[in-house]
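[INFO] parsing input record for Cytochrome C oxidase subunit II
[DEBUG] input buffer:
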Amino acid sequence: MHKKIALLLTLTALALALAACGGNNDNNAEPSGSAGASSPAAETAASQEIVINATTWEFDKAEYAIPKDTPVKLTLNNTKGAHGIEIEGQDIEIRGNKSEVVTLPAGTYEIRCSIMCGTGHKQMVSKLVVS
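[DEBUG] output buffer:
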C-alpha cells in the first residue's frame, strides 16, 4: 500500500516539474524591465535585432554578440515553455515573447532565465558579448 502511495506522489511531483516548463507561450506576460527600454521610436532606431530562442532548460545559443554603445533590439522567443531573461549586472529583464531595445557598454554579460521553469532552470545560462 505504501509503495502505491509513494509511486503516486512521485509521479505527481514529476508531472508538476515537467509542467513548469510546458507550452505556456503567454503573449500577455508581465512587461519587461526598464533599463535600456526605449520608446517605440527608439525601437525603429535599433541597429540590429538579436532573437533569443528559449526551450526546455536551454537557450538556442551558448553566446550572443552585439556592438557596444549601440541600440540593439533583444527579442525573447519562448519556443517551448515559459521563460524570461535577465542580464546580470544590468537592470534588464524580458519576460514572455517580448522585445526590448538595449544599449550596453563593452563587456561580457551572463544571460539567465528569470522564470523558475523546472529542474533544469539553473543551467539555463548563456553569454552576451558586447564589443
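[INFO] The domain at 2-130 is CATH 2.60.40.420 (Immunoglobulin-like).
[INFO] shutting down worker
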